[in-house]
C-alpha cells in the first residue's frame, strides 16, 4: 500500500514539474512573440521612412502587393462584401492593395476587442475610441506610434485634421490614432410630447420650474399617463448635472468639477448643498407620481412608452432624439414631439472628443505604412469615402443634384419591406467635408447643432485619463454605495430624505470616497498642467 | 375488499393525475407566455405587459428575424452540420478513450486518467487558448474552430470510462477466446452494450454544439459561417447597444430592440431541440444516473 502511495506521489510530482516546464515554455513563447513583431516591423519601417523623406509623398513605394485586414467595431451589412469588392478594384489600381474588413459585432465586443489587441493577431487597422478604452490601450502600448509616420504616409489627413483634435488623441505626447473629423455635440436633453403641452396650455420648457409645470400638467390632464414612464434614471440623473452645472470628470462618476469655469474645484457631489436641494425636490416629484416607484428596476425605455401613448418625456442626446422623432413619425404620425437640450441651463456646449471615433494601428501590424496610405485615401478621396460609407450609388442610395444630400432607398427603385439601409461601422474614418446629408433626417438637428456651435467651449473634462488602478478598491466600494443608497435617494424613493442623505454620505466616507477624490484631483492637475488650463 | 381497494386506487389516481397535470401546466405556462409574447404586438406588451391571450396577433417579430431568410437558413445549415459531425466524431473519440481507460490490461490507465482529469482543474485561460487557436493552429474563421474545441471533454471521458467499467470483463474475455481483437471487441461488443451511455453523452454533445455561440463570437469573421445561436444573439445585441450610453456616441440608425423580437428569437433557437427532446428524453433520464455510481 505504502509503496503504491509513494509511486503515486512521484508521478504526481513529475507531472506537476512537467506542467510547470511546459507552461513556462508557453509563457516564454508568448512573451517573445509580441516583442518580436514590433521589432521586425520597426526594422521594416526604418528604411521605408528614410526612403520616403526624399521621395514625393505621392510616389510612395507601392510595388509590393499588400492585403490588409481591418477590424471595425459594429455590425456588417449583407452587401458589405459586394461594396468591398468594388472598393478593392479601385484600391488595387491606385495603391496595389486589397482590403479585408472584419466586424466584431456587438456580442461581447469588449472581450473580443481585448483579445484582438492582446493576442498579437495580424491586424492592420482597428477602430479606436475613447469609449472603447483608447487611452488605456494606447498607454499599455497596444497601438503603433503614428507621430512621425503621419506626415509622410497620410499627408492629407495630417493637414486636414485640426491641431486641437491631434492634441486630444495624444498620450504622453505621442499620437496613436487618427481621430474622425466630425464635430459632434451630444449633450443630454429631453424629448417630450409637444402636442400635449399645447393642448393643456402649459408653459414652454426652458428651466427646471417649467419642466415641473409640464409634468404636473400632464399628470393631471392626462389620466393614465406617467410623465416619465419605465426607467426614469437617465432622465433624472442627467437633469441633476445640468441643473447644478457640475461637470463629471472622466465620464460617469461621483466626482465633479463644480463648474466649467472652475475646473480645479473638484468635489464629490453628494456632499454639496446643490445635491441636497435637488434630492429634496426629487422627493416631491416622486411623491407626486412623475415616475413609478419601481422605476429603478424597470427595464422599459421611457421612449417606448411615449410611442404606446402612456409616457411624455424621454432622455436623449440630439442625434438620438432625431432618430427617435423620425421613427415615431412613422409609427405614430399623430404625435408631435419636441426637444429640449440641457445646454440651455448654462448656455454652453462641449463637443465630443475627436477620438470619440477614430482608427488606430495595432502593434502586430506588418503594413503600418500601407494601412495609413489607405486610410488617407479613404478619408480624403470622396469617391472612396462615399463607396465604403454609403454603399454603391444606385443600389444603396441615390445622390441628389446638389451632390450633398442623398436618399435611401435610391430614387425610383422599389424595395421589399425588409430592405435595410447600407450602414456599416464607418464612424472611425468620418471626415465632415465628404459626408452626405440624408433626406428625411430630423430637420431640427442642424438648428440645434448651430446653436451648440455658437456656444461651443473646448472639452476639458473628458480627456482626463483615469484608469482607477491605484484606487480600485475604493472605486468598487463607492460604486456599491452609489447603487444601494445613492440611486434611490436621487429618485426620491426614500421615506426620509434627510436621514437617507446622511446615511449615504456616511457610507460614502467609509467606502473611501476621499481617496477617490484625491486621485482624480491629482490626475486632473496633471492634465491641466499639460494643457495649460 | 376488492371494491375498496379499487376505490382507494381511483382516489389515488385522480389525485395523482390532478397533481401531475397542475405541475405540467405550471411548467408549460412560461413557454406558452414566450410563444404568445412572440406573436403579440409590440405596443401592447409595452402598455399592458405580457399576456397569455394577446388581443391582437402580429407576426412582425418573426418577419424581422427572417428578414434575411438566406442568412437564417445558412446559419441553420452550419449549426446542424457542426452538431451532427461534432457529435458523431465526439462520441467516437470519447468512447474510444473511455474504453481504453476502462481496460485493466492498460497498465498506465490511472496516470493517463489523471492527466485528463488534471485539465479540468488547471487551464491556461482565455488569452493563451485564443493565441493557440489563432496563431499556432490558424483556425481563425474556419469551421474547425467551431468543431474541435468542444469535441472532447474530460468530464465526458470519465463518464464513459465509468460506464464501460460496469460491463462485465467476462464478455470481452469470451470474445477474446473466440479470437476477437481489441478493436473488434470495442466495435462489436462494448459499443452496443454502451448505448445508454453513448446516448447520454451524445445528447450532451449535441446540446452543447447546438447552443454554442462563444466560439463563433471569437473566431468566426465571415457572416456566411455564423451558426444559428450566434446569429440570433447578434440580432439581439446590436439592438441592445442602443440602450447603453455608447449609442450616444454613435448616432447611427439602429432599429430599437423589441420585446417581441426577443421572444421570437427564443422560439426560433429552441424550437428544433424541443421537437427532438421527446425522442431522446428516455436516454437523458437514464443518463443522469450514470455518473451516480463512481467505479
Automatic annotation (TrEMBL), chain A:
PROSITE patterns: PROKAR_LIPOPROTEIN. Keywords: Signal. Residues 47-60 have a biased composition (Basic and acidic residues). SUPFAM superfamilies: Periplasmic binding protein-like II. It holds the Pfam family DUF3502. It comes from the Bacteria. Residues 34-46 have a biased composition (Low complexity). Residues 29-60 are annotated as: Disordered. Residues 466-528 form the DUF3502 domain. Residues 1-26 form the signal peptide. This is ABC transporter substrate-binding protein. The lineage of its organism: Bacteria, Bacillati, Bacillota, Bacilli, Bacillales.
TrEMBL record, chain B:
One of its GO terms (cellular component) is plasma membrane. It comes from the Bacteria. This is Putative ABC transporter permease protein YtcP. The chain crosses the membrane at residues 12-35, 75-100, 112-131, 143-164, 185-210, 260-280. It is a multi-pass membrane protein. The keyword tRNA processing does not apply. Its main location: membrane. GO terms for biological process: transmembrane transport. The gene is ytcP_5. Keywords: Cell membrane, Membrane, Transmembrane, Transmembrane helix, Transport. Belongs to the binding-protein-dependent transport system permease family. It is found in: Cell membrane. It holds the Pfam family BPD_transp_1.
Amino acid at each position: 500500500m505504502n509503496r503504491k502511495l509513494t509511486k503515486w506521489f512521484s508521478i504526481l510530482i513529475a507531472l506537476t514539474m512537467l506542467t510547470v516546464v511546459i507552461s513556462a515554455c508557453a509563457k516564454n513563447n508568448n512573451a517573445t512573440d509580441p516583442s518580436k513583431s514590433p521589432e521586425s516591423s520597426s526594422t521594416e519601417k526604418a528604411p521605408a521612412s528614410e526612403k520616403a523623406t526624399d521621395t514625393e509623398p505621392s510616389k510612395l513605394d507601392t510595388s509590393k502587393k499588400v492585403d490588409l485586414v481591418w477590424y471595425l467595431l459594429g455590425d456588417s451589412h449583407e452587401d458589405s462584401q459586394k461594396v468591398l469588392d468594388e472598393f478593392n478594384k479601385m484600391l488595387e489600381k491606385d495603391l496595389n492593395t486589397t482590403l479585408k474588413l472584419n466586424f466584431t459585432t456587438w456580442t461581447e465586443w469588449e472581450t473580443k476587442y481585448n483579445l484582438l489587441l492582446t493576442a498579437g493577431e495580424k491586424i492592420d487597422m482597428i477602430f479606436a475610441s475613447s469609449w472603447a478604452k483608447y487611452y488605456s490601450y494606447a498607454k499599455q502600448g497596444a497601438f503603433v506610434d503614428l507621430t512621425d509616420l503621419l506626415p509622410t504616409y497620410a499627408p492629407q489627413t495630417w493637414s486636414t485634421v485640426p491641431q486641437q483634435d491631434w492634441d486630444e488623441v495624444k498620450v504622453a505626447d505621442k499620437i496613436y490614432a487618427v481621430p474622425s473629423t466630425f464635430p459632434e455635440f451630444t449633450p443630454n436633453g429631453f424629448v417630450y410630447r409637444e402636442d400635449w403641452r399645447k393642448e393643456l396650455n402649459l408653459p414652454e420648457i426652458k428651466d427646471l420650474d417649467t419642466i415641473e409645470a409640464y409634468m404636473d400638467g400632464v399628470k393631471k390632464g392626462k389620466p393614465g399617463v406617467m410623465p416619465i414612464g419605465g426607467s426614469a434614471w437617465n432622465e433624472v440623473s442627467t437633469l441633476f448635472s445640468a441643473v447644478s452645472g457640475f461637470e463629471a470628470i472622466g465620464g460617469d462618476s461621483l466626482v465633479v468639477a463644480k463648474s466649467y469655469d472652475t475646473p480645479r474645484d473638484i468635489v464629490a457631489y453628494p456632499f454639496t448643498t446643490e445635491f441636497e436641494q435637488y434630492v429634496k425636490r426629487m422627493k416631491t416629484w416622486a411623491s407626486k407620481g412623475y415616475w413609478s416607484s419601481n422605476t429603478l428596476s424597470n427595464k422599459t425605455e421611457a421612449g417606448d412608452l411615449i410611442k404606446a401613448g402612456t409616457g411624455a418625456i424621454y432622455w436623449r442626446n440630439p442625434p438620438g432624439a432625431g432618430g427617435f422623432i423620425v421613427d415615431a413619425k412613422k409609427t405614430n404620425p399623430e404625435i408631435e414631439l419636441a426637444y429640449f437640450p440641457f445646454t440651455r441651463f448654462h448656455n454652453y456646449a462641449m463637443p465630443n472628443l475627436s477620438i470619440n471615433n477614430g482608427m488606430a494601428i495595432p502593434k502586430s501590424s506588418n503594413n503600418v505604412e500601407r494601412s495609413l496610405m489607405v486610410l488617407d485615401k479613404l478619408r480624403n478621396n470622396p469617391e472612396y469615402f462615399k463607396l465604403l460609407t454609403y454603399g454603391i450609388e444606385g443600389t444603396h442610395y441615390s445622390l441628389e443634384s446638389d451632390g450633398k444630400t442623398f436618399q435611401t432607398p435610391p430614387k425610383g427603385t422599389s424595395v421589399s419591406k425588409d430592405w435595410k439601409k447600407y450602414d456599416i461601422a464607418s464612424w472611425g474614418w468620418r471626415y465632415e467635408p465628404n459626408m452626405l446629408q440624408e433626406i428625411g433626417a430630423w430637420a431640427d438637428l442642424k438648428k440645434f447643432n448651430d446653436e451648440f456651435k455658437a456656444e461651443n467651449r473646448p472639452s476639458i473634462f473628458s480627456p482626463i485619463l483615469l484608469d482607477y488602478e491605484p484606487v480600485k478598491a475604493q472605486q468598487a466600494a463607492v460604486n456599491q454605495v452609489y447603487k444601494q443608497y445613492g440611486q434611490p435617494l436621487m429618485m426620491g424613493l426614500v421615506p426620509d430624505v434627510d436621514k437617507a442623505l446622511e446615511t449615504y454620505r456616511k457610507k460614502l466616507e467609509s467606502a473611501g470616497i476621499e481617496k477617490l477624490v484625491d486621485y482624480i484631483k491629482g490626475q486632473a492637475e496633471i492634465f491641466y498642467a499639460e494643457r495649460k488650463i | 375488499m376488492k371494491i375498496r381497494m379499487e376505490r382507494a386506487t381511483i382516489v389515488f389516481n385522480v389525485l395523482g393525475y390532478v397533481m401531475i397535470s397542475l405541475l405540467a401546466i405550471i411548467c408549460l405556462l412560461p413557454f406558452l407566455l414566450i410563444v404568445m409574447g412572440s406573436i403579440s404586438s409590440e405596443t401592447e406588451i409595452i402598455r399592458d405587459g405580457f399576456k397569455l391571450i394577446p388581443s391582437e396577433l402580429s407576426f412582425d417579430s418573426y418577419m424581422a428575424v427572417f428578414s434575411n431568410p438566406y442568412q437564417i437558413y445558412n446559419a441553420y445549415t452550419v449549426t446542424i452540420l457542426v452538431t451532427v459531425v461534432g457529435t458523431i466524431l465526439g462520441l467516437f473519440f470519447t468512447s474510444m478513450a473511455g474504453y481504453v481507460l476502462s481496460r485493466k490490461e492498460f497498465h498506465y490507465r490511472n496516470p493517463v486518467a489523471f492527466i485528463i482529469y488534471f485539465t479540468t482543474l488547471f487551464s491556461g485561460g482565455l488569452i493563451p487558448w485564443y493565441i493557440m487557436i489563432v496563431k499556432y493552429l490558424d483556425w481563425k474563421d474556419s469551421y474547425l474552430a467551431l468543431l474541435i474545441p468542444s469535441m472532447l471533454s474530460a468530464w465526458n471521458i470519465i463518464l464513459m470510462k465509468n460506464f464501460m467499467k460496469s460491463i462485465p470483463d467476462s464478455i470481452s474475455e469470451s470474445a477474446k477466446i473466440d479470437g476477437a481483437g481489441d478493436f473488434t471487441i470495442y466495435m462489436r461488443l462494448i459499443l452496443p452494450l454502451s448505448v445508454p451511455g453513448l446516448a447520454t453523452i451524445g445528447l450532451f454533445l449535441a446540446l452543447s454544439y447546438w447552443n454554442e455561440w462563444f466560439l463563433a463570437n471569437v473566431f468566426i469573421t465571415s457572416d456566411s459561417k455564423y451558426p444559428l445561436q450566434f446569429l440570433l444573439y447578434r440580432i439581439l445585441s446590436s439592438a441592445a447597444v442602443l440602450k447603453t450610453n455608447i449609442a450616444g456616441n454613435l448616432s447611427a440608425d439602429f432599429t430599437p430592440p423589441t420585446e417581441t423580437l426577443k421572444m421570437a428569437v427564443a422560439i426560433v433557437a429552441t424550437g428544433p431541440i424541443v421537437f427532438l427532446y421527446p425522442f431522446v428524453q428516455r436516454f437523458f433520464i437514464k443518463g443522469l444516473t450514470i455518473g451516480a455510481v463512481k467505479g
